[in-house]
């Protein structure tokens, strides 16, 4: 009889359902309950770098906007550092890098204000204690990708809604970062070059002097967005 | 040993995207394969939360929306631990819940079910796990309710649960069901999960030892997030 491996198994996911707002954004459900809702201010007041606005819509297999989505964003600051002990360094006071938005119940439009993230080193020294960025020549790094290039500026997105059984992970890159995108190790993992374009947010003018990026997420169809098993 | 990336998600225990008996999934399920990604710093990090983010009353759904009395229904305690697949506690992580009231009605402007709203019940709560990964809520047992899938579908009583863990790759939303509920075997959403053992893991157990006599019934519900490798075979070992 073989020895038993004494591991647990991850709890199974279930759909967030149509009323996810009650739990994660009660104001949108139509009532106030908490002193503060979480996730509305991604970058905080002291964030350095270029302020941007990101807007978009999630489109289903019928070509219709999904009107009950909740999205969460996770991003680095303008220097490419995440607000986490293993995020590669210090961030500005108040920079959280995490946001939560819901879609408009009538139009399906969503949007958030943040700063443009910087390039992110793909690997950090995954040590105990303080993590630090390692140089490309450091032999001690934990090789996780084939390329040594930094990752192009990107925002990680996680999408839940009624009918989505397990949250969908994707990444939003910036159309106007062509050079960095061409060297990005994750975009380059996508064998079908035409599908890489599904991860690019398009410049959509400015509002009050702030650049607006538009990102459409397609759950199905010819231009289905690339989703990642992370 | 150094912690490295998180264990690969076991998709055989997770619901696939396309589950036609749960009809809404048909138009909302990606059809191409997901791209498998070795984890970078973008995945091994995630948001952190502290006691400045929430208030102590946020985990008491009996009191956190009460206007002129306690909500109607069966008073319950839901408690347990957030663990990872190595059975290590996940401390200081945000757990958020939401649910219908005792009559099966959500306080949501889009819910039109016949069940009545309870003026003293909001239906949401949140808390941080302690240093041992322990959490608890006090609430009202939610009612079952009908939904438009097949003509005659009823959701078993359930509480939605959202957990962050230590990294964005551990992010999880699931549902808690109650031991003995006869609707569980009939629910198309429950059965999006292909593995009966994985379904069993989502059913909270009656915990008489944790009840408060003459006050509240208790249910125990442990939540397991993805485990994390340690890097073996290094030239120098560091504390794990």
- Multimeric status of the protein: heterodimer
In terms of per-residue confidence, which ranges of chain B show pLDDT below 50 for 5 or more consecutive residues?
none
What share of residues of chain B is helical? under 10%
The class by helix and strand makeup of chain B works out as mainly beta
Give the DSSP E fraction of chain A (strand runs of 2 or more residues). Answer: 25-35%
In short:
The complex is a heterodimer of chains A (230) and B (240). Chain A is mainly beta and 230 residues long.
Fold blueprint:
The complex is a heterodimer of chains A (230) and B (240).
Chain A lengths: L19 H5 L1 H4 L21 E9 L10 E6 L22 E5 L6 E7 L38 E7 L7 E7 L3 H5 L10 H4 L3 E8 L2 E9 L9 E2 L1
Parallel strand pairs in A: 1-8, 6-7
Antiparallel strand pairs in A: 1-4, 2-3, 2-5, 5-6, 7-8
Chain B lengths: L1 E5 L28 E2 L4 H4 L30 E10 L9 E6 L24 E5 L5 E7 L4 E3 L5 E3 L2 E6 L8 E7 L17 H5 L2 E4 L10 E4 L2 E3 L2 E4 L9
Parallel strand pairs in B: 3-12, 3-13, 10-11
Antiparallel strand pairs in B: 1-14, 3-6, 4-5, 4-9, 7-8, 9-10, 11-12
What does this structure look like?
The complex is a heterodimer of chains A (230) and B (240). Chain A is 8% helix and 26% strand. Chain A is mostly beta strands. In chain A, strands 3-2-5-6-7-8-1-4 form an eight-stranded mixed sheet. Residues 124-147 of chain A have low confidence and may be disordered. In chain B, 45% of the residues are buried. Chain B is 4% helix and 29% strand. Chain B has helices at 41-44, 196-200; strands at 2-6, 35-36, 75-84, 94-99, 124-128, 134-140, 145-147, 153-155, 158-163, 172-178, 203-206, 217-220, 223-225, 228-231. Chain B has two helices and 14 strands. The mean pLDDT of chain B is 95. At the A-B interface, helix 1, strand 5 and strand 9 of A face strand 1, strand 2, helix 1, strand 4 and strand 10 of B. Strand 9 of chain A pairs parallel with strand 2 of chain B, so a sheet runs across the interface.
């Amino acid at each position: 009889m073989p020895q038993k491996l004494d591991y647990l198994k991850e709890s199974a996911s279930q759909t967030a359902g149509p009323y996810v707002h009650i739990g994660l954004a009660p104001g949108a459900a139509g009532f106030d309950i908490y002193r503060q809702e979480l996730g509305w201010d991604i970058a905080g007041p002291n964030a350095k770098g270029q302020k941007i606005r990101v807007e978009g819509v999630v489109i289903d297999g019928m070509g219709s906007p999904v009107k009950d989505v909740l999205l969460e964003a996770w991003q680095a600051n303008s220097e490419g550092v995440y607000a986490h002990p293993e995020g590669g360094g210090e961030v500005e006071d108040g920079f959280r890098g995490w946001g939560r938005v819901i879609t408009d119940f009538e139009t399906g439009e969503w949007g958030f204000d943040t700063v443009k993230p910087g390039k992110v080193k793909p690997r950090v020294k995954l040590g105990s204690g303080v993590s630090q960025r390692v140089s490309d020549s450091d032999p001690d790094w934990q090789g996780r990708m084939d390329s040594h290039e930094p990752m192009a500026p990107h925002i990680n997105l996680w999408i839940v809604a009624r009918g989505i059984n397990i949250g969908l992970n994707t990444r939003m890159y910036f159309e106007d970062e062509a050079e960095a995108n061409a060297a990005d190790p994750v975009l380059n993992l996508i064998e079908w070059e035409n599908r890489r374009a599904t991860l690019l947010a398009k410049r959509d003018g400015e509002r009050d002097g702030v650049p607006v990026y538009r990102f459409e997420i397609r759950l199905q169809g010819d231009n289905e967005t690339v989703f990642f098993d992370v | 040993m150094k912690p490295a990336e998180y264990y690969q998600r076991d998709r055989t225990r997770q619901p696939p995207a396309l589950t036609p008996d749960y009809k809404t999934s048909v138009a909302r399920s990606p059809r191409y394969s997901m791209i498998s990604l070795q984890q970078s710093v973008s995945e091994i990090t995630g948001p952190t939360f502290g006691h400045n983010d929430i208030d102590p009353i946020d985990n008491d759904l009996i009191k956190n929306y009460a206007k002129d009395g306690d909500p109607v229904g069966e008073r319950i305690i839901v408690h347990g631990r957030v663990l990872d697949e190595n059975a290590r506690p996940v401390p200081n992580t945000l757990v958020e819940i939401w649910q219908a009231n005792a009559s099966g009605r959500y306080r949501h402007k889009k819910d039109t079910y016949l069940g009545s709203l309870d003026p003293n019940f909001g239906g949401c709560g949140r808390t941080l796990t302690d240093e041992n990964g322990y959490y608890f809520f006090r609430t009202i047992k939610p009612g079952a309710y009908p939904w438009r899938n097949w003509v005659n579908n009823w959701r078993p009583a359930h509480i939605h649960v959202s957990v962050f863990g230590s990294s964005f790759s551990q992010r999880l939303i699931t549902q808690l069901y109650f031991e003995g509920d006869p609707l569980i075997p009939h629910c198309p959403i429950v059965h999006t999960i292909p593995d009966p053992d994985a379904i069993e893991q989502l059913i909270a157990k009656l915990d008489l030892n944790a009840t408060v006599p003459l006050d509240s019934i208790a249910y125990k519900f442990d939540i397991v997030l993805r485990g994390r490798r340690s890097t073996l075979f290094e030239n120098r070992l560091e504390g794990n």
